């Protein structure tokens, strides 16, 4: 019988699977008495100790300690085994005793797996006691500076699993593997008590257990090298994460198996070519990545395989192919999921803007990190600290310890062949500065904050980064908001002001608007921008931005769709569908032909959905078939034979049409009041022009057939023309000249927020947009109930209700007590501004100015900033709107709306 390693967990396996241990906390919540605590866990999240964010000075922290006790039994069958206790992670210093005796030296460093051989300390077949004394803050100053003085929440405790391993006395301690894309294989096999073994046999198997290659080597010492070649392996990449298992058999002189050890591996080659790029399996790649903390509001830094699977799937759903471990090695299962689902990984030795670990503890923790993570095909780069936190004495140690000789980077720095500068202005992307020959990939860029950053600005940045041959991609900051459930209150979420609400996702993985923007911009399939007009021929220019996937391996579906109108239940009717195929190699461009149904011009939209070879949704693109004016004309077919009546004074005009009464103030040309059957519809104080104040020059009324015409003329010949029919249908046409450079341009009205219940609209949605975050929405029929979410701070209901909505064709504004209205947009490219989003408590550079009023119809909107950059630093799409009357047909912007208050 082969001698397998046997494992017994003393703790649970993760955040949702724990085991209670005895626990004593020295200070803070629930301190000073023995009780119990789930393991693994962060003790703050179990109601113990105190909360600290990493910016809090050390002298102001409580620095509590924790004592753990747990009794366990050892099977009699383990009598002649080597037994080790393994800790996957303890924050931060850990003293371990077995039956009252030290298991070994105190371990310092929170995020690293460590183990002790406890064979001689155990009572086999009897009860044993484990004691662990944990200090939240390390006695080693360099450890505390590296791990505890940082821009993230600080936790304490045994936060990752604890388990026992039993092996034969002669055993494989660990292995380090290098498996290249051409099939070249090598492994260093680290042995314990090797004198009783003679040979190592390695079987390369499929995950189903079928052996496809075998390599043998005689034992040459404590570390033995085994090598060979596996012909034509299926290579590993983020697009096709093909995996094998390498089964290591330690044989005695009779070729009997003494010990067997299995590792999951991938054959892939990583090259960093000077002044060129990063190559995977001979193909130059760009990393479309994100930084990710191991974090959950309820569990802190304690995680689970299910949480890792969720996180990686969300990244893949955003069309990401890379992730950076910020700022410490993750749980082992996270790397396993990256291996299996396909993400390349930057794995990082901990530090944050301060000198990293000292030489002694740094070397030890580096050894632990590489020993645990070396065999993961997903790990392609090591990072030595973060933002100036590196220990330069360790630079060469990475290569010494890593059989694969991966590149080492210093995030935020120009180091050797790479430049990873953080939070650059858009202008830096010209790369005409002092590192023009370096491979450029910012390990942090577009720092999110609330709803700013991430998707906002990414379109401009990525256009330059994608087309620059020396750019190897980049990593957004950060994956999810790190708001923690405070157990010292009512479990309310705390993001420490604006330090932690930086995510693309909310704290519980709620998808914010930037999620979908990133998904579209980083989609490996790109459609060239075009509008559908009556001359549309069904042809789209398309680009394959995959690195290893031919588009023949993907599937496409085209749908021609019609939508229900206002006042009806939301319905879409799919008129026809078509399965599309396209043979297009990676990096190439071609055309896709869609069949045109005979009635295609009578339909509302064309929608194309792409799915990758594994069944994952890549993106959906939708194009309206008709212009807004055509759709409005289609919906507004009734005419009225009735005639409105007027009641006019020197300053006011009141119009009655059917059940609707509308009052105007003649001095400024605005609506003062609208009533339906005597009940107030609270739309008023408009139209006001938002980009330049207008002075009324002339106010006049006349009848055209049965319709009342009200004309308001402003200075510079700008105007507003009202046409009201006998049923109360109100048409508004405006023409105006905005300022030459304006944050927004259009007209606005008052509609008190307290009176808004929801909205339904045909247009882009369901998320709001900014001038520099226009992608990630789709044309369709959408509905939202009112909410007052402040992105990343409160509410956490997505999509947010308030803000800018693009390409609106019509909208039903649901007022309370049914006192709302419907507006039909008869002009192209109009934004609907729905109320003003509340500002978070500490908005930094994401603070946004909105037009006056509550409901606006706009030709142009403004951009949002990031945590560190205002819009002026984020590229062309973030600049103010520019207008030149000389370039306009008629010299003015025009807009036509029709209001139905019935």
From TrEMBL:
It comes from the Bacteria. GO terms for molecular function: beta-galactosidase activity; carbohydrate binding. Its cofactor is Ca(2+). InterPro entries: B-gal_small/dom_5 (IPR004199), Bact_Beta-galactosidase (IPR050347), Beta-gal/glucu_dom_sf (IPR036156), Gal_mutarotase_sf_dom (IPR011013), Galactose-bd-like_sf (IPR008979), GH (IPR017853), GH-type_carb-bd (IPR014718), Glyco_hydro_2 (IPR006101). Residues 33-168 form the Glycosyl hydrolases family 2 sugar binding domain. It holds the Pfam family Glyco_hydro_2. Residues 181-268 form the Glycoside hydrolase family 2 immunoglobulin-like beta-sandwich domain. Monomer. This is beta-galactosidase. It comes from Sunxiuqinia dokdonensis. The lineage of its organism: Bacteria, Pseudomonadati, Bacteroidota, Bacteroidia, Marinilabiliales.
């Amino acid at each position: 019988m082969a001698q397998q390693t046997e494992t017994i967990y003393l703790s649970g396996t993760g955040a949702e699977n724990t085991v209670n241990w005895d626990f004593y906390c020295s200070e803070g919540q629930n301190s000073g008495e023995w009780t119990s605590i789930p393991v693994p866990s962060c003790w703050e999240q179990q109601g113990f100790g105190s909360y600290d964010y990493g910016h809090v000075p050390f002298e102001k922290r409580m620095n509590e300690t924790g004592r753990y006790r747990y009794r366990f039994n050892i099977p009699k069958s383990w009598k002649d085994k080597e037994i080790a206790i393994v800790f996957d992670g303890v924050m931060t210093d850990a003293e371990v005793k077995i039956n009252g005796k030290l298991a070994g030296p105190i371990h310092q460093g929170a995020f690293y797996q460590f183990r002790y051989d406890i064979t001689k300390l155990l009572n086999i077949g009897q009860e044993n006691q484990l004691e662990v004394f944990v200090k939240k803050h390390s006695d080693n100053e360099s450890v505390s500076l590296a791990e505890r003085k940082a821009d993230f929440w600080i936790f304490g405790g045994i936060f990752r699993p604890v388990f026992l391993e039993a092996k034969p006395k002669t055993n494989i301690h660990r292995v380090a593997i290098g498996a290249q894309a051409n099939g070249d294989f090598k492994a260093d096999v680290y042995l314990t008590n090797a004198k009783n073994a003679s040979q190592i046999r390695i079987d390369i198997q499929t995950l189903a257990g079928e052996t496809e290659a075998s390599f043998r080597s005689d034992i040459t010492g404590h570390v033995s090298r085994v090598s060979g070649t596996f012909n034509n392996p299926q290579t590993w990449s983020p697009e096709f994460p093909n995996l094998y298992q390498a089964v290591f058999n330690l044989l005695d002189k009779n070729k009997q198996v003494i010990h067997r050890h299995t590792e999951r591996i991938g054959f892939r080659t990583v090259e960093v070519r000077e002044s060129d790029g990063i190559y995977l399996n001979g193909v130059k790649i760009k990393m479309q990545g994100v930084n990710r903390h191991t974090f959950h509001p309820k569990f802190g830094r304690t995680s689970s395989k299910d949480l890792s699977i969720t996180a990686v799937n969300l990244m893949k759903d955003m069309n990401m192919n890379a992730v950076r471990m910020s700022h410490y090695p993750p749980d082992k299962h996270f790397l396993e999921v990256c291996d299996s689902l396909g993400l390349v990984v930057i794995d990082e030795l901990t530090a944050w803007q301060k000198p990293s670990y000292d030489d002694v503890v740094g070397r030890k923790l580096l050894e632990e990190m590489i020993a645990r993570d070396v065999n993961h095909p997903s790990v392609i780069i090591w990072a030595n600290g973060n933002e100036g936190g590196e220990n330069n004495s360790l630079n060469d140690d990475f290569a010494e310890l890593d059989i694969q000789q991966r590149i080492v980077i210093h995030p935020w720095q120009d180091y050797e062949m790479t430049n990873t500068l953080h939070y650059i202005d858009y202008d830096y992307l010209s790369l005409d500065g002092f590192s023009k020959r370096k491979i450029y990939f910012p390990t942090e860029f577009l720092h999110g904050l609330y709803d700013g950053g991430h998707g906002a600005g990414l379109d401009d940045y990525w256009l330059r980064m994608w087309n620059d041959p020396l750019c190897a991609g980049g990593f957004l900051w950060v994956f999810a908001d790190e708001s923690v459930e405070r157990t010292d209150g009512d479990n309310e979420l705390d993001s420490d002001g604006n330090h932690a609400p930086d995510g693309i996702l909310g704290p519980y993985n709620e998808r914010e608007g930037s999620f979908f923007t990133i998904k579209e911009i980083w989609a490996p399939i790109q459609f060239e921008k075009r509008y559908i007009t009556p001359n549309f021929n069904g042809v789209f220019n398309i680009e394959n931005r995959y690195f290893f996937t031919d588009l023949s391996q993907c599937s496409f579906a085209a749908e021609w769709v019609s939508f229900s109108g206002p006042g009806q239940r939301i319905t879409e009717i799919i008129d026809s569908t078509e399965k599309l195929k396209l043979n297009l190699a990676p990096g190439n461009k071609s055309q896709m032909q869609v069949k045109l149904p005979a009635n295609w011009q009578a339909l509302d939209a064309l929608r194309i959905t792409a799915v990758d070879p594994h069944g994952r949704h890549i993106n959906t693109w939708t194009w309206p078939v008709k212009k807004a004016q055509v759709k409005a004309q289609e919906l507004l077919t009734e005419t009225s034979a009735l005639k409105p009546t007027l009641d006019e004074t020197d300053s006011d005009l009141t119009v009655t049409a059917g059940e609707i009464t509308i009052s105007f103030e003649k001095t400024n040309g605005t609506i003062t009041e609208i009533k339906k059957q005597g009940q107030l519809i609270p739309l008023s104080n408009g139209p006001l022009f938002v980009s330049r104040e207008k002075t009324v020059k002339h106010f006049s009324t006349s009848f055209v057939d049965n319709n009342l015409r009200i004309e308001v003329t402003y200075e510079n010949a700008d105007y507003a023309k009202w046409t009201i029919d006998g049923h109360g249908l109100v048409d508004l046409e405006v023409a105006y000249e905005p300022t030459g450079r304006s944050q927004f341009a259009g007209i606005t009205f008052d509609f008190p927020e307290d009176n808004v219940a929801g909205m339904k609209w045909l247009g882009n949605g369901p998320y709001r947009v900014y001038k520099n975050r226009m992608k990630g929405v789709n044309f369709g029929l959408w509905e939202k109930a009112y909410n007052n979410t402040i992105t990343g701070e409160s509410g956490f209901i997505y999509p947010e209700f308030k803000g800018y909505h693009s390409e609106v064709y019509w909208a039903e504004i649901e007022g309370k007590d049914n006192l709302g209205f419907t507006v039909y947009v008869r002009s192209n490219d109009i934004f609907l501004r729905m109320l003003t989003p509340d500002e978070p408590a500490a908005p930094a550079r994401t603070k946004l100015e909105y037009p006056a009023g509550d409901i606006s119809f706009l030709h142009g909107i403004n951009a949002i900033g990031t945590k560190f950059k205002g819009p002026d630093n984020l590229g062309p799409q973030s600049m103010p709107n520019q207008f030149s009357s000389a370039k306009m047909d008629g010299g003015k912007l025009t807009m036509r709306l029709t209001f139905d208050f019935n």
